């Protein structure tokens, strides 16, 4: 037999075909054209002014010098904070039930908790308008019983907006708490009970501390979704209730003041990113602390 | 002369600085059942993956049916592969799974249907065509995996520990069936396993691998009866492996001194091993007999006296530990009918045939 | 004590569920109420508001919203599969960074994305793209990350041994994608696309910047009316579009089978 010659070493065959980057071309172009470039332009525009050329902070100083606008920013933060707390408080019992229940009611209640999300914001806001307005469901009922003579101010104010937004965002709060609560081993509760803890003590010492990451993510999602919501504050807040989202909209479509609109959008974006950053830092801290 | 189906010529595989497979050369003859046997990490799976084409050798050459396979992707090698976890397509029925290879060849619908029913027939799984893998038991999934691999009639079938997920009973049935399938089809089977019993039961040839190299290659009888190294002797079957020094006698027989007490025994050399290179000897437990039962043997034996240390009842056999000259321990397999003779502490006369004391290289 | 707690917990649950369902029930009741004064149990029932829906005032926005949702779910489905393939299946170099890029629109509020797109179109003088083309662009950016994430999750869960099995049986790259990968990620992909459909159909914060007279989506048409009156016909519009969404989900489920259990999976 002939002398055996070794073949030259070959590159290892990949388990999956090469050219993995090729399919990325289409989504990358779409994202660049309709997202990255517009975002870059918007940031650029915020440093322009309507009258003069060149780079300027004029629009930013106008933003931070305008009391009405700053009041809108503060209102946005307060509203979002309230919504975050309401969402988390209401979502917690629901999520706990869903995490632990095994009965057939679980499916029904899960569907009830999540399904409103399909209905869209308009339907639910419309529902709340019917319920909360001056001649609405609650006020007519209360006036009919004679408990009040004047309608209570339930809509066109902060209260109405917080109720509406809490309703809109609640399913997201339930889902993020559910993930966290489901990861708690039910045997921890059982062993605490065997050791003599009451239901209340179990919740206080076992469930609450272990679900803190879920609480943080629920607060975070509540805050960010509320701060960027448009339709609910516009409809339930009425003309006098201005938040960042509605103000941005007015700047773009009525005043056509693009640099100022861009500044507002950027401030909103920074607010979101800051909240997200703080939230995720807090979450990873807690994860470390709890050794999860 | 038999034709060679798969040939590995000085094949090596390195990942970084570690040699997974180190310069191995193999020739797998057509139509034979060949097992690659070794403990985990010995390089057997990497060898299989290189034959299948999922990994390329760092150096060396692989030929299948005489053709160099360098650069040939798995899909073009026309070989079958049965995976350890079966890897059945969960979204396809049994028939669609089995027909997949034929479909990829662009065969006509009737041909595919015929190939599917032939393959299912050879694994005794007719009537399961429309089931989904999830609805099958482990053994049935195993059969589907085999049927899927043989349906396109590859000349070579690679099997990667295919029985390891089955329970013991089923594994023993499947051994027999796999061997029958292989004989019926006349296909070359390359069977990777860490289970020496499995390899012994089915193979025409066994390749024992250790640390990326071939430790020994031969028929099951060769490997069991004439192990070359203490690794092979220990890995395949049970054995007493004892340190020795060996001397060639003038009459060309061998005398060995076993252990620290230098118990003298006569031995035979196997595999052309020079006595000065021998470091150990191997005595299979079944070769250690009670002297009164060894009378029937028509070959010369070493006689010795041992003290029974302990006895483990294995059903048909007893495993008895014999202490010889207060130093070496010989494990022996003795029929359970002799249980009355074997109680701990009693002395027994033993006989070990000269040919049963085999020298090992290392 | 424990019994009292259990009781209180149940009452709280019931109250929360009532809070969740109340607005939906109210809208549903209002849509059958003959007067615009809303009561939970109207003395008479009528279908006249539903009859009033058969009008170009509502049909045109509805058709636009449907068209938009279909285009958006198809486009983001296609782009999402391509992106997920590179990231989760081929695991191309730098795939974590690429994934972050593909998901990046998620971290920007919708209203900001809307401003960015409308500013781009305005400063580039592309006013003609307002209306349907602009809406498609904006909605695809909104939904793409969700589809990428769901498709990528499905692909991460894909058993690579199945790919090897198909390969050794002679399947080419294209055949392996067509016959093995796509059928197995179909459920994940379709749930992503269904999600995209619903998000697009119900969207307000992006659409509000991009609609133009004659090309207005249904939710925007409804809020434009809501700012002036609580016309009960709006209740009917809302209920009808909710029913449409539910129907669409059922249809998607029929095609995609995402809730059905996939048969098995090798162990």
Structural class category of chain C: mainly alpha
Radius of gyration over C-alpha positions of chain A, nearest whole angstrom: 26 Å
- Using only C-alpha atoms, the radius of gyration of chain C works out to 23 Å
What assembly state would you assign to the polypeptide chains in this entry? heterotrimer
Overall spatial form of chain C: globular
Low-pLDDT segments, ≥5 res of chain A: 1-17
Low-confidence stretches of chain C are 260-267
User: What is the N-to-C succession of helices and strands of chain A?
Assistant: HHHHHHHHHHHHH
Strand content of chain A: under 5%
Helix amount of chain C: over 70%
Q: How many beta strands in the DSSP annotation of chain C?
A: 0
Mean pLDDT of chain A: 84
Report helical residue fraction of chain A: over 70%
Largest sheet of chain A: none
Largest interface pair? A-C, 80 and 86 residues
Question: Separation of termini of chain C?
Answer: 48 Å
Overall form of chain A: globular
N-to-C order of helices and strands of chain C: HHHHHHHHHHH
Count, helices of chain C: 11
Strands of chain A, total number: 0
* SS field, number of helical segments of chain A: 13
């Amino acid at each position: 037999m002939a002398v055996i010659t070794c073949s030259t070493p070959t590159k290892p065959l990949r388990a999956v075909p090469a050219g993995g980057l090729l399919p990325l071309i289409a989504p990358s172009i779409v994202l660049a054209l309709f997202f990255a470039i517009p975002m870059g332009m918007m940031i650029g525009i915020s440093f322009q002014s309507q009258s003069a050329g060149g780079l300027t902070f004029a629009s930013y100083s106008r933003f931070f010098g305008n009391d009405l606008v700053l009041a809108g920013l503060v209102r946005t933060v307060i509203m979002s904070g309230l919504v975050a707390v309401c969402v988390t408080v209401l979502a917690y019992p629901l999520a706990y039930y869903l995490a632990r229940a095994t009965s057939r009611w679980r499916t029904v209640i899960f569907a009830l908790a999540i399904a409103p999300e399909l209905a869209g914001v308009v339907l639910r806001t419309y529902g709340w308008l019917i319920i909360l307005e001056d001649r609405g469901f609650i006020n007519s009922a209360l006036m009919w019983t004679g408990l009040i003579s004047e309608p209570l101010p339930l809509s066109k104010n902060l209260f109405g907006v917080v109720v509406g937004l809490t309703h809109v965002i609640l399913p997201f709060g339930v889902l993020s708490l559910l993930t966290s609560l489901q990861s708690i081993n039910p045997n921890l509760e059982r062993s605490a009970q065997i050791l003599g803890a009451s239901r209340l003590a179990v919740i206080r010492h076992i469930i609450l501390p272990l679900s803190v990451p879920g609480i943080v993510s629920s607060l975070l999602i509540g805050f960010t979704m509320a701060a960027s919501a448009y339709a609910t504050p516009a409809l339930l807040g009425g003309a006098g209730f201005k938040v960042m989202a509605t103000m941005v909209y007015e700047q773009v479509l009525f005043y056509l003041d693009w640099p100022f609109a861009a500044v507002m959008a950027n401030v909103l974006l920074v607010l979101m990113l800051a909240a997200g950053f703080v939230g995720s830092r807090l979450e990873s801290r807690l994860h470390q602390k709890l050794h999860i | 002369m038999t034709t060679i189906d798969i040939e590995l010529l000085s094949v090596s595989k390195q990942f970084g600085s570690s040699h997974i497979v180190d310069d191995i050369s193999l020739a797998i003859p057509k139509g034979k059942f060949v097992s690659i046997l070794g403990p985990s990490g010995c390089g057997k799976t990497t060898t299989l993956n290189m034959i299948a084409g999922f990994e390329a050798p760092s150096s060396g050459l692989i030929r299948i049916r005489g053709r160099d396979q360098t650069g040939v992707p798995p899909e073009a090698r026309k070989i079958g592969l049965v995976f350890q976890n079966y890897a059945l397509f969960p979204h396809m029925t049994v028939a669609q799974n089995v027909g997949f290879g034929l479909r990829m060849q662009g065969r006509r619908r009737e041909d595919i249907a015929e190939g599917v029913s032939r393959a299912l027939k050879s694994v005794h799984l007719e009537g399961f065509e429309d089931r989904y893998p999830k609805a099958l038991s482990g053994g049935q999934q195993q059969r589907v995996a085999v049927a899927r691999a043989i349906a396109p009639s590859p000349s070579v079938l690679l099997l990667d520990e295919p029985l390891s997920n089955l329970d013991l009973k089923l594994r023993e049935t499947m051994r027999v069936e796999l061997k029958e399938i292989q004989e019926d089809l006349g296909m070359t089977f390359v069977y990777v396993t860490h289970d020496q019993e499995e390899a012994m039961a089915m193979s025409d040839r066994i390749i024992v691998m250790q640390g990326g190299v071939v430790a020994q290659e031969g028929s099951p009888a060769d490997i069991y009866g004439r192990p070359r190294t203490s690794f092979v002797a220990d890995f395949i079957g049970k054995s007493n492996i004892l340190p020795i020094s060996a001397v060639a006698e003038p009459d060309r027989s061998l005398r060995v001194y076993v252990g620290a007490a230098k118990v003298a025994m006569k031995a035979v050399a196997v595999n052309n091993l020079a006595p000065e290179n021998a470091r150990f000897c191997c005595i299979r437990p079944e070769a250690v007999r009670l002297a009164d039962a060894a009378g029937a043997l028509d070959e010369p034996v070493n006689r010795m006296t041992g003290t029974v240390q302990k006895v483990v009842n294995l059903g048909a056999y007893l495993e008895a530990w014999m202490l010889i000259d207060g130093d070496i321990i010989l494990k022996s397999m003795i029929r359970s009918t002799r249980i009355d003779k074997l109680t701990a502490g009693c002395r027994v006369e033993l006989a070990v045939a000269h040919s049963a004391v085999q020298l090992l290289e290392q | 004590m424990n019994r009292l707690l259990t009781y209180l917990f149940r009452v709280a649950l019931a109250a929360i569920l009532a809070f969740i369902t109340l607005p939906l029930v109210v809208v549903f009741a209002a849509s059958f109420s003959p007067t615009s004064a809303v009561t939970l149990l109207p003395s008479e029932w009528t279908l006249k508001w539903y009859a009033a829906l058969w009008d170009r005032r509502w049909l045109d926005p509805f058709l636009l919203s449907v068209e938009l949702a279909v285009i958006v779910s198809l486009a983001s489905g296609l782009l999402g599969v391509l992106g997920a393939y590179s990231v989760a299946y081929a695991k191309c170099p730098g795939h974590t960074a690429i994934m972050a890029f593909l998901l990046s629109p998620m971290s920007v509020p919708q209203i900001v994305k809307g401003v960015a797109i409308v500013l781009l179109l305005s400063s580039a003088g592309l006013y003609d793209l307002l209306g349907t083309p602009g809406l498609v662009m904006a909605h695809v950016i909104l939904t793409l990350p969700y589809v990428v994430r769901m498709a990528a999750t499905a692909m991460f869960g894909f058993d690579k041994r199945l790919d090897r099995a198909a390969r050794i049986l002679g399947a080419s790259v294209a055949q392996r994608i067509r016959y093995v990968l796509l059928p197995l990620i179909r459920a994940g992909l379709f749930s992503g696309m269904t999600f995209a459909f619903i998000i697009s159909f119900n969207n307000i914060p992006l659409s509000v910047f991009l609609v133009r007279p004659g090309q207005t989506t249904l939710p925007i048409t409804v809020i434009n009316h809501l700012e002036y009156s609580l016309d009960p016909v709006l209740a009917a519009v809302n209920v009808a579009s909710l029913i449409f969404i539910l129907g669409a989900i059922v249809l998607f489920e029929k095609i995609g089978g995402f809730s059905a259990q996939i048969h098995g999976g090798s162990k």
